[in-house]
Amino acid sequence: QTQEDYRAMIGQMEMVLEGKEDQFRKELESDMQACAKRLDFEAAARRRDQLQALAKLKERQRIDLAEAVD
After folding, report:
1. How many CB atoms lie within 10 A of CB 45?
2. Is residue 30's pLDDT more than 70?
3. How far apart are CA 19 and CA 12, in angstroms?
4. What is the model's pLDDT at position 57?
5. Sign of the Cα pseudo-torsion (39, 46, 21, 59, in order)
6. d(CA 21, CA 52)
């Protein structure tokens, strides 16, 4: 991976930590579709996997918050 790739990953992590998961999700979905249009299915699959990981993270946060409220 290049330095540019690492910077992009850091930017993505910052978005999640700042609570901008929805914006990040939309960007991933758009990028996944663009990759598929270019027939870059491996990159599209990586975006899909990132989307799934983001959904799991969000669900865990929801569960933790619900348990904290109880």
Report:
1. 13
2. yes
3. 11
4. 85
5. positive
6. 12
